[in-house]
């Protein structure tokens, strides 16, 4: 602002033109040293001093929003405000700065009353006509590339899935910030864990403006959010204010047909193709599968009825029927504190319900169409014979439950694999579930995180909408990745198979076995075993004599024959092969971790940890009835598609 306006508007001013010009001149003179005074400051001053009537100001604001958006953006830039800011924090900052600039013009009381006026006008401008709607997104991600799903807000080194996801959402201008979109997630996966059907929900920008109407002549027939398209294919015909464009665009050589009435134009609007928009910005390791509109109270976490996990593994030498027996013992409601990592600052109830747990063979080819079979989850598929498993076949543990504890699936996998390798009996599962007798979790490692997949998140009513172009693109991309990895695995298998024809000296094989058995038995003795006999094979010397023949000391044997002999001593060339000389200590004989009660007593010694415990557990703890009522309400939340259909049918 370098000087007063060169013209005066008598229309709408409650004082004569000369008085207005005098007042404006005073403003410019008093602010000649202040370059931060904006046209909005002048407008606000005129309102406060009643130089301009409120009716004219209201009309001006409406005109700015509807017909002069370009000019409105210029004013916003003059105020150094972010283009997309709509939250109250930004508004408050602007108000404070504006009030500061008018210090010499108004009294404190006038400045205070002016703040609310500017806040309202400013919020109206920045909010404009953007509509948001509650959307659930279903997506896939390869967890091997990320530090986990959850974002560590404020950490520059964060490599989470959510950080990448929100970067794409903000770049597409579908959300303004994580805090303002009411974000919720279904399952929180850790570092390296993948998901085939993760679900998140948030408020996303809609293609239909908030001031869109069904009729030509006003705001008395505004389009409700419930009437918006439920997919990106359907469209609705509404009346909207035209967007300011730099040049007229043509589609298929013909100008868009519009009808103007009271400043509005009629337009057929489709919802944004959220999946396509985001997939164009996301890396190949994260893919949006589909979306659906959801109710206002829907929560991706609390509205979920069940979660399905799959843990993939190679059959190898596992006893699959025993693994299935151990999984069956896990079904039902149990206290799983010995099958998880306890976080007592956040969790106090370790009871969870597993609806089904079974071993399933991974299909190597496209399955043939067949009638679905009823499966109560207490056994494997009828088509799978666990006794005839090939060591190279791929299987997975499929576990369905309402909710899970921290590292629960990986703990379960580690224990049942011990059973599968013959190191533990299936009954150890029952003993670990008896927390009264087994106080404190035995020390055992977690199963590897990479084979774990959150396969599906299930809800009472959530029909996710998929588009053919998106699924086609995704299928082609995933098939290409599968082909690359399959061919890489085939090359490795070819190399492994080529080793079978190699020959070694029997004496070399005997020395190798002797060294391994001696080391293993020495470890067994240190662990408290009194007999120097290997638990997996016959007596040491007797077995080695079958390998080494004094009459043919220089004879050779193929590597394939050597592997058969080594397997009799439980020396198997798999992921545990390099550890084959280690001694397994039974789970119930291992050292125990601290109990839940001991952990709670310990954290109370720290003021910070005690406060966190009280905030997360004590204050939020609810009665059984309150929990039941809460989850009954939340699990009924879901898609708004059925509600839309019901409304149409009733009308």
Automatic annotation (TrEMBL):
Residues 72-124, 244-264 are annotated as: Disordered. GO terms for cellular component: cytoplasm; nucleus. It holds the Pfam family PseudoU_synth_1. Residues 327-459 form the Pseudouridine synthase I TruA alpha/beta domain. Residues 84-124 have a biased composition (Low complexity). GO terms for biological process: mRNA pseudouridine synthesis; tRNA pseudouridine synthesis. One of its GO terms (molecular function) is RNA binding. HAMAP family: TruA. This is Pseudouridylate synthase.
